[in-house]
Amino acid sequence: MTVSINDVTDDIEMFQDFSESHVNNAIKRATLQTKNDSVVDIAFDTAVTEYAKHLLYVDYFMNYGGVTSSSMLGVSETVSDKTSNDPYLNQYLTTVQNYGNGGDGSFMLL
């Protein structure tokens, strides 16, 4: 199975405005990273999906400069770095730990 645009964007609202080419590029970059991390076949597509989501997650917040709320008249702005605790990267790192070169060689079922 190969990872599709729908596998990555699915029902995640923040990813819906990305173009197909942008998502495909994220999938290609994620595939290269997953190969580099030597993730085994059984978990390969899962890892590609997780890393592609991570890349889109970072792109989404970088497009907004980290600003998640603002106010015009009160000149108020909330800036936060949502990428410092990226759930998609955390999932990917766990997959690499269990199924790639980041692990101890043991396998566990997800």
- Which radius of gyration do the C-alpha atoms yield? 16 Å
Strand order of the largest sheet: 1-2
The secondary structure category is mainly alpha
Beta-strand level of the residues, as a percent range?
5-15%
What composes the largest sheet? 2 strands, antiparallel
Residue runs with pLDDT of under 50 for 5 or more positions:
105-110
**How many distinct helices?**
4
Taken in chain order, the helices and strands follow as HHHEEH
Number of domains: 1
**In angstroms, what separates the terminal alpha carbons?**
18 Å
Number of strands: 2
What overall form do the CA principal axes indicate?
elongated
Measured as a percent range, the helix fraction is 40-55%
What's the overall average pLDDT, rounded? Answer: 83
Relevant terms:
mainly alpha, two-stranded antiparallel sheet
Topology:
Blueprint: H1 5-9, H2 20-36, H3 41-63, E1 67-71, E2 76-79, H4 87-99
Antiparallel strand pairs: 1-2
Helix pairs in contact: 2-3, 3-4
Describe it for me?
With 110 residues, the protein is mainly α. 53% of the residues lie in helices and 8% in strands. Strands 1-2 form a two-stranded antiparallel ribbon. A hairpin with a 4-residue loop joins β1 (67-71) and β2. The two termini are 18 Å apart.
Q: What's the gist of this structure?
A:
The protein is mainly α and 110 residues long. The protein has four helices and two strands; from the N terminus they run αααββα.
